[in-house]
Structures are given as structure tokens and as C-alpha cells.
TrEMBL record, chains A, B:
Residues 39-58 bind DNA. Gene3D superfamilies: Tetracycline Repressor, domain 2 (1.10.357.10). PROSITE patterns: HTH_TETR_2. Keywords: DNA-binding, Transcription, Transcription regulation. It comes from the Bacteria. This is TetR/AcrR family transcriptional regulator. The keyword Transcription applies. Signal peptide: none annotated. InterPro entries: Homeodomain-like_sf, HTH-type_TetR-like_transc_reg, HTH_TetR, Tet_transcr_reg_TetR-rel_C_sf, TetR_SbtR-like_C. Residues 17-76 form the HTH tetR-type domain. The keyword Cell division does not apply.
Length: 192, 192
DNA sequence: TATTTATACGGAGGATGCCTCCGTTTATCA
DNA sequence: TGATAAACGGAGGCATCCTCCGTATAAATA
């Protein structure tokens, strides 16, 4: 009972799970440093596993990229959950948006990466859009409920604005400008 | 007299010029089909020259990419010149903008390519921005002079809007939507 | 606990691409 | 019609990609 499949299946091997996690961590680091075309063998080396193991878990570069992306999205979503306990709701939202900037900034290749992803499965797009919308909706809703934020901005608007800020910037030294723009935007969201 | 350099220099060899052109054509096709990471050897093969010749003309992938991009920009600029003889100025502008969409659509990797370029020399950015601004200014100016287009839109605004339309679209099947948006925009430009 | 077996592991190896180097070819110039 | 500067082609060394399969090991079973 409670078994998902009809046939009883062995539970996944512990080393498999561990290696998958190691690979994701390594990939995040390697892609951040070397851009999205970085060597997959370098990823395997850093994770301390054979190249075969990498390919078994992620048959293509895109599969690995998707997994990394999902990982990051989940990370941001979890962070929103944590920040929802922050006493000041506006500050919580601001911090979350800043985390977005930092996360994208941390990986030079991410903008190109996002485009690779955009070419890929629309299921992934739907998934990430949904999770991030939910995350930002949570933080936004708290601010609205507290009467501190205007109520006519949807989470989707906010997400799109964020993306727009990322895209509109020149690639060099864009981070400070993006952070400033985010702050301006959050200020604009305040009820007066 | 009339010689650019102090020392008299041989004029460039005919085969060199021809091969350069062949390579640019081949590169345009190969990058359009296979994206910006397509094999440079494939480019040389398609141009019917040795790989060494490719590298002599374009020492790096980026150099080749820049040259292709310049080539396309020049192409669009020339097209604007041609279209300026079209009797209906609004139609001319519309056609030029559509050509932009088609050109970007024709090469799947172009959006990523533009980002590569954005990382690259700002001289190239300046050059292309100038040429395209001039081109669109020509077409726009005719419409304004004929009293058919509103006068408060600058060529820069129009270019930026065009870029915005390209970026905001999802990558799959974006072309029809982009064409529609361009038409809407051109309609909006009309004086009423 | 000992044995079985499904599952995962590592890395050798063939294919392909990158880029350099240099002997050969050829277009220009005298 | 030479002489020669300039360009050509592609072999070769190295890196990466990805597959395949013999070996190792965690979970299941007795």
C-alpha cells in the first residue's frame, strides 16, 4: 500500500541519490564559473564521479541544465517560505527580489542559460513560472494584507518586471543597477 | 598618390577577397541552421575552403560572428535605401520591419548571438546602432514628411521597441506574433 | 547473516571539433 | 616572364563528447 507503481520496485540506491546531488552542486558551480558551455567532464571531476555516472543521471547537457534550473527555482521558492516569517512584509519582499538578482548575478551564463531553457520543454517553463509566481504571490499578499502595498499589482506583473530589469541591462556591471531598480520598484509598490 | 599607406602595398589578392565572402555566406547559413555553437569546420567545408583559411580570415569564433553580424546590419541598411523608393512610405517602413523579423527568425541562434555580440566590442554595437538608426530614420522621416506618420517617435524608440518585441516573445513560434505586433505598432504610428 | 541480483559505477575508446603550423600554390609586380 | 609576398590547404596534437561494458555494491531474500 502506498506504493506508486503496481510492481513492487526496489527503493533507489543511496549512492545514486547522493551522486545526483553532488552532480547538481558541481554543475551549478561549474556553469556559474565557466558559462553554459563549460565541460561536462569538469562537472563530473568536481563531483568526484565518473563521466559515465553523469551521463546516466543526465543524458544530455540540456537535461543537466534543466535540473540545475529546477534546483534553483525550488531554492528561491523555499526562500520565500522562510522569508514569510520576517516581521516586515515589505522588507521580506525586497530581500527576496535581491536574492533573485544575486542568484542570476552569481552565474554569468544564466541569461544565456535561461534562453536555452526557453527553447526546452514548456513543462519546465510552466513549472518554474508557477512556483515563482506562488512564491512572489505569498510575499506580495502579506504586504497587501498588512495594508502596506498597493493591491493592483499581480505576481505575474512583478515577475515580468524583474525579468525586464535583467534583460534591459547591459551585461557588464549590471548588478548594482538592477538592485537599485528593484528597490525603486518596491518603493513604488508601497501604499502612500 | 591616393595610396593610404606610406609604403606602397600590394593590392589584396582576389582569391582572398572571394574566400572571405564565401566564408561569410557559409557562416550565415551554418549558424542559422545549427545555432551559434555550430562547427567551424562545417563552415569551412560549406565555403569550400580549408580550415586554415577560415582561421586566417577570422581568428576566433567571435570574430567570425562579428563579421556575420556586420554583414547582416549592412544588408538591412542597404534594404532601407532600396525601400526608400517605394511610393507608399508607411508600407516601406512596414516592409523593412518585417524584413527584420524574418532575418532574426531565419537564424535560430541570432538572439543568443546578439548577446555574444553584446559581450563583445562596443565599437560593433555603436556601429550597428548607428547604421540601423540611420536606416529606420530614413524610412520614418519620409512618412513624417508625407504627413502620414506622427512626428514624436524617434528612430531609437522604434528600434528599441523592435528589440523589445523580439525579446518578450517566447522562442517557439514567435514569428507570427512578432509580425502582428509590428503591424499594430506601425498602425499606431499612423497619424489619424 | 550470507547469498543473490538489480542497479549503479568508472573510465577506456571512437568520433568529432578546435586551432596551429608549415610546405605548397598562386596572384601581383617588375 | 621570373621573383616573391601573400594566401592556401590540411595534417596533427589536444580537448571534449558520448557510448559501452566489465566491475562493484546496495537492497532484497533466505
Amino acid at each position: 500500500m502506498g506504493q506508486e507503481t503496481v510492481k513492487t520496485r526496489r527503493k533507489p540506491r543511496a549512492d545514486s541519490l547522493r551522486n545526483r546531488e553532488l552532480l547538481l552542486e558541481a554543475a551549478t558551480h561549474v556553469f556559474s564559473t565557466g558559462g553554459p558551455q563549460a565541460s561536462l567532464e569538469a562537472v563530473a571531476r568536481r563531483a568526484g564521479v565518473g563521466i559515465g555516472t553523469l551521463y546516466r543521471h543526465f543524458p544530455t547537457r540540456e537535461a543537466l541544465f534543466e535540473a540545475v534550473y529546477r534546483h534553483e527555482v525550488d531554492h528561491l521558492a523555499d526562500l520565500a517560505g522562510l522569508l514569510s516569517f520576517e516581521p516586515d512584509p515589505v522588507e521580506a519582499l525586497r530581500q527576496w527580489l535581491h536574492a533573485n538578482v544575486r542568484l542570476v548575478a552569481a552565474k554569468k551564463g544564466m541569461i544565456q542559460g535561461l534562453q536555452l531553457v526557453a527553447h526546452g520543454s514548456s513543462e519546465l517553463k510552466a513549472y518554474s513560472f508557477e512556483r515563482l509566481t506562488e512564491a512572489v504571490g505569498l510575499l506580495l499578499g502579506r504586504g497587501v494584507a498588512a495594508g502596506e502595498l498597493r493591491a493592483d499589482i499581480t505576481p505575474e506583473d512583478l515577475l515580468r518586471t524583474l525579468l525586464g530589469i535583467f534583460y534591459s541591462q547591459g551585461t557588464a556591471d549590471w548588478q548594482p543597477a538592477a538592485l537599485r531598480l528593484v528597490d525603486v520598484f518596491v518603493d513604488g509598490l508601497r501604499k502612500r
